[in-house]
Write a structure and sequence with these properties.
By secondary structure, the chain is α/β, with parallel strands linked by helices. It is built from nine helices and ten strands. The chain has a single domain, classed as Rossmann fold (3-Layer(aba) Sandwich), CATH 3.40.50. Helix 3 packs parallel to helix 5, helix 4 crosses helix 5 and helix 5 packs parallel to helix 6. The longest helix has about 40 residues.
Length: about 300
């Protein structure tokens, strides 16, 4: 997995009447497996920074690089298709496509067969808690939280290494907001993706691994934790996640054995085993008698 690196990034908006320095020399390295929150008041440069990382534009100065390649020197449309997914507050789901069709769309657009795209879409929708009866519903037939999950499933289906989210909980109630944030944090660990969220919500920032504060186009606070300690903690989380999977597999195998044992011990099966045992005993006794008669003769 590649890192997203910003080096002395500046961005200037120019109009007929004024020039605005949205970013004024931002440098930071975003790593896979972490959940980042970018905070700051309106106009601090958060959304501009997110747009540059998505390759929607290039910086006025400095560079944004994914791995070793600067976004100035790559096909940015292809970059978004293959490496980065953006989740907007407005979701940007196709209103006349069902949930599963929304997730399938970018896969089919890239040339994947419809059957394979459907299989992946079902898997990703279920992984974010959207059950099969809702796969065929239009976005307007889903709740705000469910629509946001569909948008996340679409990002996962594209196998994006970086998920950028602009106020993903802005239109949700507090309960759904926390569910979406928890889901994104778990995905950072389980899928080893880099999740970067722009937010005004303190509750979202509290759950991030790293909090970066912007003011007047500059990073004024962040990271809010020691990344070396966080890396050790993250490794523990990944091990624990794998342990949970192994535990579930063990539990499943034990349940299978228990079910098999119970099946064998049902009255019908128990009678069959008893009958077989009696027949075997009779054959053994008959052979013993024949052997005894033969020895006497």
């Amino acid at each position: 997995m590649s890192t997203m690196t910003l080096k002395d990034v500046g961005y200037t908006y120019k109009s007929k009447y004024q020039t605005v320095n949205a970013l004024a020399g931002v440098s930071y390295e975003f790593r896979p497996g972490y959940f980042y929150a970018i905070v700051g008041r309106s106009g601090s440069g958060k959304t501009t920074m997110l747009s540059l990382m998505a390759g929607l534009d290039i910086p006025t100065s400095g560079s944004v690089a994914f791995g070793e390649k600067s976004t100035k020197n790559i096909n940015r449309d292809k970059f978004r298709l293959e490496h980065v997914s953006v989740i907007y507050q407005s979701l940007n789901l196709f209103p006349l496509l069902t949930a599963i069709e929304n997730v399938m769309f970018p896969l089919e657009y890239c040339g994947m067969s419809r059957s394979k795209a459907k299989k992946i879409a079902v898997e990703k929708l279920e992984s974010v808690g959207i059950d099969k009866p809702k796969h065929r519903r239009l976005p307007s037939m889903l709740s705000g939280g469910e629509q946001q999950r569909v948008a996340i499933a679409r990002a996962l289906a594209a196998k994006s290494e970086v998920i950028l989210a602009d106020e993903p909980t802005g239109n949700l109630d507090s309960e759904n907001s926390l569910n979406i944030v928890q889901l994104l944090k778990e995905l950072a660990v389980s899928e080893n993706v880099c999740v970067i969220v722009v937010t005004h919500d303190p509750a979202v920032a509290e759950r991030a691994d790293v909090v970066i504060k912007l003011s007047d186009g500059l990073i004024v606070e962040g990271p809010a934790v020691n990344e070396r300690d966080l890396a050790e903690e993250r490794n523990i989380e990944i091990v624990n996640y794998q342990s949970n999977i192994d535990s579930k597999k063990t539990e499943w195998n034990l349940n299978r054995k228990e079910m098999k044992t119970q099946h064998e011990l049902t009255p019908g099966n128990a009678n069959k085993h008893t009958s077989r045992a009696k027949n075997m005993k009779m054959l053994i006794d008959q052979n013993k008698k024949r052997a005894k008669q033969t020895s006497l003769e």
